[in-house]
Amino acid sequence: MKVLVVEDESALSVQLAHSLGAAGYAVDCAADGDRGDFLARTEAYDAVILDLGLPRIDGLTLLRGWRESGLQVPVLVLTARDSWHEKVVGIDEGADDYVAKPFRMEEVLARVRGLIRRASGQASPALRCGAVTVEPRLARVCRDGVEVKLTAHEFRVLSYLMHHRARVVSQGELTEHIYAQDAERDSNTVEVFIARLRRKLGANVIETVRGLGYRMGS
């Protein structure tokens, strides 16, 4: 799972990236509206954390442009402005949720999890498929109630498949959602992660749909 942070306060951006990374997400950061707009339109994200008071292009303008162009990625708006008017405008322009600064990092992480869960049509905070359970809040995976240790990339692959378990996910789509923008990407390594997950969780936990990709099995 991959998140874009568009925030011009460098210390806060680093803090968000660190916390999101520790929670199992691949993270890209942009310090102004131009960069944020470029990344949002050229990379695949599961959620965007967007500050409203950005240089070059403000957050509301970005949000309006994304929605007008059909970009449906869930957006959590961050702002120091705590007036009801700013909150209403942000939601009306297409924000999915809203947090006013200062905030607790745990609240931001919880809201990001909620946005991603709802966007993929999941009602429960814990994702289950057969004997496998993924708890995004704890970045924990269990099989038959026993915790299984995964690497960061293995967790991202499994988490993405679990969030989209009703459909087949292509190798290319998985590649887009498990690597940060500046990371070296190799779609062949997805096969390696899938093989490792099968060894750790069971041979039938992930099904290969020949010529199309992967989906969660039984």
Describe the structure.
By secondary structure, the protein is an alpha/beta fold. It has helices at residues 10-22, 33-42, 59-68, 84-92, 105-119, 152-163, 171-178, 188-201; strands at residues 2-6, 26-30, 47-51, 75-79, 97-100, 127-129, 132-135, 140-143, 146-148, 206-209, 213-216. The strands form 3 sheets. Strands 2-1-3-4-5 form a 5-stranded parallel beta sheet, sandwiched between helices. β7 (132-135) and β8 (140-143) form a beta hairpin. α6 packs across α8 (188-201). It starts with a strand and ends with a strand.
Topology, number of strands = 11
Give the helix level as a range of percent.
Answer: 40-55%
Secondary-structure element order, as H and E? Answer: EHEHEHEHEHEEEEHHHEE
Biggest beta sheet summary: 5 strands, parallel
Strand content is 15-25%
Major beta sheet, strand line-up: 2-1-3-4-5
Regarding quaternary structure, what we see is single chain
Number of helices: 8
Fill in the keyword field for this structure:
11 strands; five-stranded parallel sheet; 218 residues; 8 helices; 42% helix
